[in-house]
Model the fold of this input.
Amino acid sequence: MTPARPAGKEHDAGLDSATLLWLTGGLMMLQPLSTDLYLPALPGIAAYFEVGVATVQWTLSIFIATFGLWQLVAGPLSDRFGRYPVVIGGLAAYCGGSLVAMAAPTIEVLVGARALQAAGACSCLVGARGIVRDLRSPAEGARLFAAASSIMSLAPLLGPIAGAALYLAFGWRSAFALLTVLSLLLATAALLKLKETNRRRNAEALRLRPMLATYLRIGASPEFRAYALAAAASYGGLFAFISGSSFVLIRVLGVSAIAFSLSFAVMVSGYLVGTIVCRRLIARRGLQGTIYAGAALQLAAGAAMALLALTGVAAPAAIVAPMFFYGVSHGMIQPAAQAGAMAPFPRHAGAATALAGFVMMGAAAAVGFWIGASYDGTTGPLSYTIFAAAATSAIVAFTLVRRHGDVSRHG
Done:
């Protein structure tokens, strides 16, 4: 049994359970909103700036690459100075990046603004995960992450639909105008409600040698590697769909921007179902059992998509239906993997979540570059890439997570 943290600890930090849940969900929401809201406009952005698919893909890939790299800074910052200043600073940076993106005169400026958005969203996510690790045990944290992920899933569920409507009515810049407004609202809520939770600040966290030593120690942990790689493999397949689906569904298969947004919502609804299943499975089967079940379902979904592409079935349902089940599996794997990766490092929760995020976003950035480079006007590259990610996820789950994933001794 995982030892519970003392009752009422969240109240000691000035955060009741509902506030903790909704703030965590809101801060986690910035990342998917940053990608999903403008996905229906990607082909239009390419046409507006007169650039190719690979070039406009940089607006996604630079976001993911910056998000991954900045975690290595944001994590130690939150361990040294606390979660609160990292979250508030992140919201300020995100709002500034959204304003620049909205007014971008060239594709290069838009790419730069996306990098600033990524640093801000990353700081918010790292801070939120650190807050949860400060206040909850690994199993409790996984359940809270699953509940927060259910809230967060509203962003990718409604984001593409809202983005498509905004794009058709006002053009692609309107998506970034909405992101500016939403970040201001979230900043107001954080300023009013968020309290500092890091009571064990690490004075050595930002010194280069101790920082590198901490990252090496975390990376050397077999428990960390098991869960971080599980998260990375699962997210790699999801990001293949995020980065490539608008071109495949709109350009290759001929669906409208609105139809694309509804297709994307199907995948996200699967993710929402998965987070609900995750909360129940963790209580019954623990982190490891939850990831086993998710990985098995993910492999089946990826294999079905690849088989449909291989046999020449070129229809939206051949992509969307398997992605519903991939979304379910990702909703089962991700919260458990996040909690498992941080569990062994309560004093270095910021650094642990940063390194796990770096691994995950590094994998996603590589997938994003590949999706842009391999686009050939067919469904093949997208489908086979998602299958490869699913197969990797299953291998990690049934080897590394099975062997090293018991974190029940870490309270």
In short: The chain is about 80% helix and 0% strand.
